[in-house]
Amino acid sequence: MDHRRDTNRAVLVSVEQFDPGVVLGRRPGASKDAKKLHRTLSQLGFKVEIHSDLSAEGIYQLFLKESVRPVKNCFLAVLSSHGDDGCIFGADGKAVILSRIFTYFDNERMEKKAKVFLIQACRGAGLDDGVEVDSVNDTRECSVSQYLSVPVDTAVMYATPPGYGAFMHPLGSVFLQTFCTLLKHGDTRNLELTRLMTRLSHMVAYNFRARGGALEGKKEMPCFLTRLTREVFPFAEPGVDPSATSQHGLQ
Fold first, then answer.
1. Three-class SS of 139-159
2. Are 246 and 231 a contacting pair, CB within 8 Å?
3. Across 16-33, average pLDDT
4. Angle subtended at Cα 2 by Cα 53 and Cα 69, rounded to the nearest 5 degrees
5. CA separation (Å) from 215 to 46, 86, 129, 229?
6. Of the four listed, 30, 93, 162, 225, which is most buried by Cβ atoms within 10 Å?
7. Cα(13)–Cα(59) distance, integer angstroms
8. How far is CA 60 from the centre of its chain?
9. Per mean pLDDT, which range of 16-25, 174-183, 196-205, 208-217 is the poorest?
């Protein structure tokens, strides 16, 4: 009997160093994110795999295979690289279209499983000053387009909204490091997924402010897209009644 069928799985794709000749800078801190995610998710019972510095085609082939592998209740994917709206870049500098990755998981094997994608990548060159802007039309257009490519029972959390940059520090990204911090505490990891992602957005938006040079004072606001049709608790401790934590608000 293959006991791996009884485990949730996490696949971490991290591009830190790009191929020679590719005009995309190294991303110091990406490997620290991957190591912390591996440690944190493994402690929660996930079978975790890290794939570093893959080409665009390598990333496509990886997720094509992952989309038909057995999983218990939840499949988690983390993609960390340079990017633009709708894509990230492989180590060869070629674009990986995220909607294509999402559609791989629209199949019978994954039909009743929760699929969660965390995207640590820029979605444009904009910088967030922490003030409201009148961009509702662009946001709606982008959201509808991306929504249609996401399978049912799938949630996608981006580090930043369309058109904006995402911050990376040599010690790791604020988005993924904060996610790991939340999973270390029972009162947050036991939350239903949408509430957990709301808590993540709150912490990044209100606790982070860039320092130094032209980035001084800039903010980051994660963006959540979901097609979940039910409540899911992918990180909850065994034996814990999820309903006991689902009523708590932000603190």
1. HHHHHHHHHHHCCCCEEEEEC
2. yes
3. 95
4. 40
5. 36, 24, 9, 39
6. 30
7. 8
8. 17
9. 208-217
- Pull the structure tokens for residue 143: 């959201």
Beta strands in 7-162 (DSSP E): 9-14, 47-52, 74-80, 83-84, 87-89, 95-97, 114-120, 154-158
- Tokens at 76, concatenated: 């988690």
Residue 124: which of 83, 164, 82 has the closest Cα? Answer: 164
Q: From CA 215, how far away is CA 174, in angstroms rounded?
A: 14
**What tokens were used for 129?**
């000053």
Distance CA 23, CA 173 (A): 21
Nearest in space to 195 (alpha carbons), one of 140, 157, 167: 157
Structure tokens at 173: 């990204």
87-89 sheet: strands from edge to edge: 83-84, 87-89, 95-97
Phi-psi region of 53 (alpha: psi -120 to 50; beta: other; left: phi over 0): left
Contact 65, 109 (CB under 8 A): no
Residue 149 is predicted with a pLDDT of 82
